[in-house]
Specification:
- The protein is an alpha+beta fold.
- Helices cover about 25% and strands about 10% of the residues.
- A five-stranded mixed beta sheet has the order 2-1-3-4-5, with helices on one face.
Length: about 200
Amino acid sequence: MSVAGVGPLGKLGSPKNRLGAGASFEPLAQMPGIGDDRRSQPDPMTHPYTRREILSVLGAAGAGLAAPGRPLPNILYIMADDHAAHAISAYGSRINRSSRINRTPNIDRVAAGGARFTNCFCTNSICTPSRAAILTGQYSHKNAVYTLNDPLDPKRNHVAKELQRAGYQTAMIGKWHLASDPTGFDYWNILPGQGEYYDPVFIDG
């Protein structure tokens, strides 16, 4: 599992700017101050965004959502490996509804206070290429990460760099697995390669 967190520029870990502390992401139409008549706003669940639009929204969060006197929203992105959507009960599959075992109440609580992407797909299902595609918003033939051994070019632009430009402090903790050191993060602490499942060693950057 990897966790990427971003918060307004400030001392990392301070109560005000602790990464992900109390963070939630609401669809734009539900945010206070966005439009006088909320009923006139499109429902984000029935008007899906493209990958590039999502990256643009995230990258422009500082400029587009921060009105005078309103703090920048914290953003917490969690990427978990090797499971389908129905492994998370917030997505409401029959497996989740019929079993008391396969429930994820803490993730469900985050989903209830944020936004779920119910029709979102990655263009490459392999671990390393999928990470590169999600970060860059590019197909594998564009970002040049085709296999588990291909590195992500540190000079290539991606969403964390865009968030930095928008005034965010960024961090990456967990499984990076892109055959190069992370860039675009003010702090990173990653597993070497795929890492160990038990008592793992981390590389602090």
